[in-house]
């Protein structure tokens, strides 16, 4: 149910949802929020207030950076008491990274922050943007038993509401572009929006929003593949100032049994580098004690990433490193869920 006198802040960062075709070149270019409103007159039909904030200039989400995430946190924090919910219009390419980062940076969140976008620009006849935007606004304003229905950072796309830090963009052209492989969807929009209330994280009463602005991006992703060379792994682990690595392994967290690999990993861990084991598979979890090929990583000091997406693991590492925590504290926090990103107990 929508609260009486509800209000939603729409934050427009850019992306396809707000793009229009340049008639001369055929390329997609950004257009501003007012134009967006003109293409969706339905926005006026909501019985509650919708204010907007626009990134100027809007950015393609390929240009998203930790600074822009901090800016989003700041906008939400400053406007937090004035609005019942927030909708962020964002390019789809890096939307899962932004949603993951925000879920950690907005500690104690008690209101909906719904990210959405589209595969086809709003001005185009068959656009998916209109539906995504209108339903996201409805979800952001929805209340249940006197409190927001979804006080989480989510992605709404093609009728599915998903916990943001569980999502991955899986398709470059279908409307159905996002998946949450390791956590069920939080709501489905059909004639009604059906919420799976038992799956939605509710903060404890009187929890206060604690914004975090600092991220440390001295991290990288190292994806294993058959034939990976010692020189490649050595060069990666010796990147100057590197503090964290997401190691994308096979299956349940397995790596080749090469003495040089284990030696390099052990040596990096001894230098204080955090190495997190995340599977290359789309679904399922890392279990490092299942096979010898995983156990050797555990023994080398590699941390289990459980059922984390790479997007979530990398942004969580940036977040934890940005808090100025010790290596031990970072390792501990990686083993717990901060915002429902892994199927582990809460921190
Ligand atoms: N390149 C665009 C972006 O991520 C694609 C999109 O919005 O779907 O900003």
Please tell me about this protein's structure.
An 8-stranded mixed β-sheet has the order 4-1-5-7-10-11-14-15, sandwiched between helices. A 4-stranded parallel β-sheet has the order 17-18-19-20, with helices on both faces. A two-stranded antiparallel ribbon has the order 2-3. A hairpin with a 2-residue loop joins strand 8 and strand 9. Helix 3 packs parallel to helix 8. The model has no long low-confidence stretch (mean pLDDT 93). It has helices spanning 33-39, 66-79, 95-105, 129-141, 230-237, 259-270, 292-299, 310-322, 327-334, and strands at 7-12, 19-21, 28-30, 49-54, 85-89, 106-107, 113-116, 143-144, 147-148, 153-157, 160-163, 168-169, 178-179, 187-189, 193-195, 210-211, 219-223, 244-249, 274-279, 303-304. It starts with 6 loop residues before the first strand and ends in a 13-residue tail after the last helix. The protein is globular. Helix content is 27%, strand content 21%. With 347 residues, the protein is an alpha/beta fold. It contains 9 helices and 20 strands. Aspartic acid (ASP) is lined by residues 15-16, 60-62, 91-93, 117, 119. Residues 15-16, 60-62, 91-93, 117, 119 line the site of aspartic acid.
């Amino acid at each position: 149910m929508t609260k009486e006198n509800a209000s939603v802040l729409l934050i427009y960062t850019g992306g396809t949802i707000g793009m229009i075709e340049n008639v001369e070149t055929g390329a997609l270019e950004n257009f501003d929020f007012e134009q967006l409103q003109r293409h969706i007159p339905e926005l006026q039909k909501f019985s509650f207030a919708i204010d907007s904030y626009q990134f100027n200039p809007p950015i393609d989400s390929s240009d998203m950076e930790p600074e822009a995430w901090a800016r989003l946190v700041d906008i939400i924090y400053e406007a937090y008491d004035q609005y019942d919910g927030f909708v962020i219009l964002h390019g789809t390419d890096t939307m899962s990274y932004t949603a993951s980062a925000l879920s950690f940076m907005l500690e104690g969140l008690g209101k909906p922050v719904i990210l959405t976008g589209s595969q086809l620009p709003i001005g185009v006849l068959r656009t998916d943007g209109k539906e995504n935007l209108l339903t996201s606004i409805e979800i952001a304003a929805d209340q249940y038993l006197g409190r927001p229905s979804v006080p989480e950072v989510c992605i709404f796309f093609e009728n599915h509401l998903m916990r943001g830090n569980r999502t991955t963009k899986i398709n470059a052209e279908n409307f159905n572009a996002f998946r949450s492989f390791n956590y069920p969807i939080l709501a489905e929009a059909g004639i009604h929006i059906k919420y799976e209330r038992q799956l939605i994280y509710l903060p404890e009463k009187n929890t206060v929003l604690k914004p975090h602005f600092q991220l440390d991006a001295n991290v990288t992703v190292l994806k294993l593949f058959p034939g990976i060379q010692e020189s490649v792994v050595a060069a990666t682990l010796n990147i100057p100032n590197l503090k964290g690595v997401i190691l994308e392994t096979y299956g349940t967290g397995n790596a080749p049994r090469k003495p040089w690999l284990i030696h390099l990993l052990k040596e990096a861990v001894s230098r204080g580098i955090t190495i997190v084991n995340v599977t290359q598979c789309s679904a399922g979890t890392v279990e490092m004690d299942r096979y010898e090929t995983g156990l050797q990583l555990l023994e080398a000091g590699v941390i289990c990433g459980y059922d984390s997406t790479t997007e979530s693991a990398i942004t969580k590492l940036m977040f934890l490193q940005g808090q100025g925590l010790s290596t031990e504290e970072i390792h501990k926090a990686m083993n717990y869920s901060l915002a429902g990103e892994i199927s582990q107990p809460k921190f």
